[in-house]
Amino acid sequence: MKSPHSGLKRIVYAAGYSWKGFKSTWKHEAAFRQEVILFSLMSPLVFWLGDTATERALLIAVLLIVLVVELLNSAIESVVDRIGSDYHKLSGRAKDQGSAAVFISFAIAIVVWGGFIISKLLS
User: Fold this and answer.
1) Which of 40, 52, 69, 111 makes an SS bond possible with 105, Cβ 3.0 to 4.6 Å?
2) Catalytic residues, which ones?
3) What is the distance between the alpha carbons of residues 37 and 55, in angstroms, rounded to a whole number?
């Protein structure tokens, strides 16, 4: 359904919908809460690891990617669960694929952060 709002009003409404998404995911998804806490704990380390604004942005960005992928995975799980609780191989596949995407996003973050940590410790 197309939004009846336009311009700045549409942006304000979209921000409200986004906030609802954050709140509901925080409330219903333990993994998202854990990842937000991890993000909060690791973010200050960017000032030790990153020497330039670009390096710091990269370190923050890979942490944000984990949160984005977790939000998308949670959305997939919500849609699948809404369809029904009976097992179906396609529902299981969709959930497994979402989980795999989260795993890969973590791997990206680990590779990037690991590279920066190793570089910092060796210098």
Assistant:
1) 69
2) 70
3) 22
Full residue range of the structural domain in which residue 110 is found: 30-122
Q: What is the C-alpha to C-alpha distance for residues 70 and 37, in angstroms, rounded to an integer?
A: 13
Q: Give the pLDDT confidence score for residue 4 in this predicted structure.
A: 82
| Dihedral sign for Cα atoms in the order 90, 97, 67, 36 | positive
Q: What is the pLDDT of residues 82-111, one digit of tens each?
A: 998 888 999 999 999 999 999 999 999 999
**Is 17 inside any structural domain?**
no
Q: For residue 106, with 0-12 CB atoms within 10 Å meaning exposed, 13-18 middle and 19 or more buried, which class applies?
A: middle
* DSSP at 6: -
Contact 91, 41 (CB under 8 A): no
Residue 47: partners with Cβ closer than 8 Å, 6 or more residues away: 56
Counted domains in the chain:
1
- 84-96 burial code (b ≥16 CB/10 A, e <16): eeeeeeebeebee
- Crossing angle between the packed helical segments 30-42 and 7-28, to the nearest 10 degrees: 110
